[in-house]
Amino acid sequence: MSVSIVNVFVHVIIATKGWTPLLTNDLSTEITERLLRNFKMRDTKVVAINSAPEHFHVLIKLPSYRSLSEVVGWTKGECSHWFNTNHENKLYWQKGYWATAVSFEEVPKVSSYIALQTEIHKKLSFEKEMSEYRAYGITQ
Known about the structure:
This protein is an alpha+beta fold. Helices cover 44% and strands 21% of the residues. Strands 2-3-1-4 form a four-stranded antiparallel sheet, with helices on both faces.
């Protein structure tokens, strides 16, 4: 076989610094477009993306030659730099990120979960969502 076939899917959550709820509809749309552009520049396919007021959920497919830390770190840094250069409000991301591998079979389920973020967060705070992940041992 002369080409590598790699299916590495990762569910990533990036949050605003201090979980500040600054991602209004207009800002969220603008930042989403920038994040999509940045992931594409790192040859990373975005399968699903959505936000709540203080965080983004992104399901990505990593290329074989990029690390998760490289892709997420560069994307967050470039996005906040671009935003802070072009807006009065400032965007700072929480240090680090949350990520977990997703099997090929789970991609549709995780994509649906990401698409439903607005509905989910009408009933569940981000803090509660993250504590539930911890309860299942899905975080460090």
